[in-house]
Amino acid sequence: MSSEQTIVQGILTGISTVFGVEVPAASIALQPTKKEFAGDFTLVVFPLVKLTKKSPEETARLLGEYLKQHVKIVDSFNVIKGFLNIELSAQLWVQTLASLVEQADYGNLPANGKRVMVEYSSPNTNKPLHLGHLRNNFLGYSMAKIMEANGYQVLKTQVVNDRGIHICKSMLAYQKFGQGETPASSGIKGDHLAGDYYVAFDRENKKQIATLVTEYQAAEPSADVEKLKEKAAKNTPLMLEAQSMLLRWEEGDPEVLHLWQTMNQWVYAGFNATYEQMGVTFDKIYYESDTYLLGKKIVDEGLARALFFRKPDGSVWIDLTADGLDQKLLLRADGTSVYITQDFGLADTKYADFPMEKSVYVVGNEQDYHFKVLQLVVEKLGRPYAKGIYHLSYGMVELPTGKMKSREGTVVDADDLMAEMDRIARERTVELGKIEDFDSAEALYLYHQLAMGALKYYLLRVDPKKKMLFNPEESIDFQGDTGVYIQYTHARISAILRRATAEQMSFDRADYANVVSQLAPVEQELVQLLSVYPKKVQLAAEEFSPATVASFAYEVARAYGRFFYELSIFNEPDPARRSFRVALSLATGKVIRHAMGLIGVEMPERM
RNA sequence: GAUCUCGUAGCUCAAUGGAUAGAGCAACUGCCUUCUAAGCAGUAGGUUGCAGGUUCGACCCCUGCCGGGGUCACCA
To answer: Which of A10, A388, A567, A592 could lock onto A358 through a cystine, CB 3.0 to 4.6 A?
Structure first.
């Protein structure tokens, strides 16, 4: 039982013996005492006064007396207004540290026998990944790690949107203007090459739209220009050709399929290189080309059970007005399925492949409505996975100029940004000149660790639900509340441990646990912080928020920074204290390495 | 128009309904004490968009208003 649980127990029995009333355990919320007050844990007694029929001060005092007398670990207490500050013996914190150090898997909760699937990334194969994908991938990868630490069996998946009109646009443009160019012949990464042709399509198509609009205007001068543009956009020769290409793709035309496969392979090679840089991985990849037809069976099922209905034109709908939503189209009149229908099919497939309790979809908040409908419909269909669906809806990454728009060339490319981060990391590191003995491979590895540390922390420290701002004019910081700062703390700790080892210092439990009885405030604060780590890991899973873990790691690093400056380790004359401080450093290193691991950041030994 | 969401220091972000709303950046000041200054400490900076309400207690919950964004497509 943790100290906190012990105290809560004591409070419960205290309330019942002193005041003769019973309260549910859940109503007792203990919080860490604020720094400016004496004490370790604080109980807010206001909620209790109705039951105790005493003033807040009196209630707190009586409860404090009881705890002091009956709960061994409680040393003393003080009461300020309705706040009961409980003080524990320093000895207890020393013991806490000792047991924490001994837990090899501190921060990992026991296996819970449950499964969770985390889907993220979901790229289109017609253009390279951008900053928004970085947030998505880092969130998804981190959530997978967090769920794992919470005892889940995790399957990381990716759904590739590898078919559809947008892919045909790239393919068509390549056919027309490509002249047999390949990633090898051009030296352009495959995903970028495909993206270039997507842009080329758009450029040509715009010209054709303009021509068409002029023709239309000549024919009907009084018509609304916007309407004409809309009509033209659907009817340019290029667009019509792309549509016929999509039909040929669906019919399995060998020529089209060959081009499709060739270009997609280029794109996948490009994506893989990007994922490699990002440090994210997947256990299973779903391709939309394999799954896009699966939803139709579900439409039949819904019709048979009268959950869906057919309109006179043959299209199929579900009426969700009773649930506060609209009528939603599920199948077009021509019998082809729409996006959400495909998602039903995919959801079934996922569950068949990996029967899971939870299924997390890391998808932007612009799809909130889509997922509301998805979950509602599969619930109505009685799918066992319906309740476990969680849409990790994250906010867009915006630029000072607003949303990123590929058409306006304001997209921040993922590869470019990561390369830029590598470059800055190198520049800063070389300036500081601390790793001159590294060989070039070691140095490059470190630069990348730092670059990704800065970038991932930057994107993950913000509450995922909120939109965030990225200013390309200002480089991502390496100082202050940053990933690099936390990495730096780890490197300093590593230096401490290297020296302790070199000096053959012993810092086992026996060296300090029953010897050290007084702690400096910075030491106690640090131990207390480290002791709540497993709760933070749990909270991060409950809230689906890597930010919880990221900001915790920063808090720990800050506390260590103060400790590091205020107290000397190797100049400390008392050997027990010296051992304690090394052990404290070791534990801090372990915790921040674990926490940063949960957000996908590696921690260097030196920097 | 309907609906969801956000609004906290100059900027970027924190704060299970709890004590005097905290960090970082930017500005200013001090500190290389033989453990890494990518650091530590300090100064300054706030009517938490506005107005009500609930509560012993509200940045947090409720109502209204103002402002930004998303969604409401036979796109995915």
So the answer is: A388
